[in-house]
Design a protein that fits this description.
Blueprint lengths: L24 H21 L3 H17 L6 H28 L4 H30 L1 H33 L9 H10 L6 H19 L2 H14 L5 H11 L3 H6 L3 H13 L3 H36 L1
Helix pairs in contact: 1-3, 2-3, 2-4, 4-5, 4-7, 5-7, 5-9, 5-12, 6-7, 8-12, 9-12, 11-12
Length: 308
């Protein structure tokens, strides 16, 4: 976009949201309004969405470090930093939608943002509790981190599936690993080393999502073969109706509920409780979400086969 246009864009807050279907109250009334104002400011300053994401990564890492000391004041500073980082994480996407500055690298960086935050948070909690727990807290942290990646990956995947059937391809960032692999093959390590490195990681991420959704993959195979990737309107409406109740689980498995549990554990002075919450409560939600989604995808797949 030309520099002369930079100060003239002032879209509505709603236009910077992915969809009301996929937003939760904390985001709608807190993070998105703050992110919107940051996005407007950064746009005037000529800051790009990827630059905001990088800033969010470093602020979130600083927040995680603050959870190492057994000192509530420092922990609260970390909580405030993590909230600040998440307003930036909201702002980068809102700015990208405002200006059309969307890119594959931006999506990969955005996905990696939370990963960097929580690796730091887990490490800080483990170091803090090592004198009391020894190696066992690191084992618990590793198990929790493994399930964390599955929870957030599938939450992101199902959210983008819903957006695909709500808005079509242009309104969704749903990835398909064979397409990513073809793009990866065409990239040159010498000319595009960083992007190819990120793309390799993103392919693994997408393959992991697809492996946990076999019935959806079967359904989409029929849609790609028969309808060029865009299902009929009546089918899309029916799918959205089934998918919508799961959006609350995609939100709970992403950030806000997770952080409420983390902050509660820190206020109580028992940070290992956060790991226990993730391994039990959040995994139950993950399993319910996957099982429900796979069940209705099986039903829709049969409908497509019958129609064929």
């Amino acid at each position: 976009m030309k520099n002369t246009d930079k100060k003239n864009i002032n879209p509505s807050l709603e236009s910077t949201l992915k969809s009301l279907d996929t937003e939760e109250p904390i985001d709608i009334y807190f993070y998105r309004p703050l992110g919107y104002r940051w996005a407007l400011l950064f746009h005037k300053l000529g800051v790009t969405p990827n630059m905001i994401t990088v800033a969010a990564i470093f602020i979130g890492i600083a927040a995680g470090i603050c959870f190492y000391p057994d000192d509530l004041t420092i922990n609260v500073i970390g909580m405030l930093l993590l909230v600040w980082a998440n307003t930036y994480d909201s702002a980068d996407g809102q700015l990208a939608r405002m200006t059309g500055q969307k890119s594959e690298l931006g999506r990969i960086l955005d996905g990696a943002c939370g990963t960097f935050w929580f690796i730091t948070i887990y490490a800080a909690i483990c170091i803090r509790l090592t004198p009391e727990w020894g190696i066992w807290i690191w084992l618990l942290g590793a198990v929790t981190g493994f399930f964390h990646t599955k929870q957030t990956a599938m939450a992101d995947y199902y959210r983008n599936i819903h957006l695909l059937f709500l808005k079509g391809k242009s309104g969704s960032e749903l990835s398909y690993s064979p397409t990513l692999k073809e793009k990866y093959k065409q990239m040159d390590w010498k000319k595009d080393f960083v992007n190819k490195l990120f793309e390799s990681s993103y392919i693994d991420y997408t393959v992991g999502q697809e492996q946990l959704s076999p019935r959806f993959q079967e359904m989409m195979h029929i849609i790609r073969e028969k309808y060029q990737g865009e299902a009929p309107d009546a089918f899309r409406t029916a799918f959205r109706a089934k998918s919508l109740p799961l959006m609350k689980y995609t939100n709970m498995l992403s950030f806000n509920l997770r952080v409420i549990a983390l902050f509660t554990a820190l206020f109580l002075g028992i940070p290992w409780l956060y790991f226990a919450f993730e391994v039990t409560v959040m995994n139950c939600m993950l399993l319910y979400m996957i099982r429900t989604h796979e069940r209705f995808c099986t039903e829709f797949t049969q409908q497509l086969k019958d129609a064929a």
